[in-house]
Amino acid sequence: MAPALLLVSAALASFILAFSTGVEFVRFTSLRPLLGGISETGGPGELEGERINWIARQGWMDVLHDHSVLASLARNLGLLLLFVGQHSLMATETVKAWMSRYFGVLQRSLYVACTALALQLVMRYWEPVPSGPVLWEAQAEPWVTWVPLLCFVLHVISWLLIFSILLVFDYAELMGLKQVYYHVLGLGEPLALKSPRALRLFSHLRHPVCVELLTVLWVVPTMGTDRLLLALLLTLYLGLAHGLDQQDLRYLRTQLQRKLHLLSRPQEGEAE
What we know:
Elements: H1 2-35, H2 48-51, H3 67-89, H4 93-103, H5 107-125, E1 134-137, H6 143-168, H7 171-174, H8 177-185, H9 196-204, H10 210-218, E2 222-224, H11 225-240, H12 246-271
Protein name: Nurim
Family: Belongs to the nurim family.
Keywords: Membrane, Signal, Transmembrane, Transmembrane helix
């Protein structure tokens, strides 16, 4: 009973850490750029939208001669590479086999916890570049009013879609909870019960919410220097992590239709 309690406690702790990191990531990628102006990663309590208008922005070539801007970009790049390296290295079969040997059923929970910690480092130590150049910026009316509103609507839709897709892909299994639950009840490994088509899909699809995340990264009223670095590197990473083909897409369509059918069955019963 004690080992099972420890396993469940560890899995729940990993889940709470990952969930809270996800909430913080929404604030980092959406709320700050939409509500705080170009310096979306500045300190709390500052009126970034007003302060940024007083800062003289540099040109793109001027950045090459500004050591403070280059230092901030290098720091941010290092943080992103740390996250990408952790997220990719721990997903390799060699590392997963090693973690499974020493941590058993907690392998997925450990991976999720380490990913959350790496993402926390990125968000906590990210340095904004308020004086850097901008790729685009909504300044004149009516764009200064309507563009942020449109971006806000698209971000809300994207995050709702991300949440829905994660539920379709079995959120408990993605977070490592289902593995521990099955182990405690003696049901084996959840992946062993999945069809070969599902296993084939999971081997190709590292990030099931690629399009929605790209929308969150790029659809912002002001694309500053540090935000551009974040969007470019994560876009490249998401693109390289995908390898879907027509067979995978057909399987996804079939699974979506099944989920929708299951959701509509109680309504049909009530109508009868």
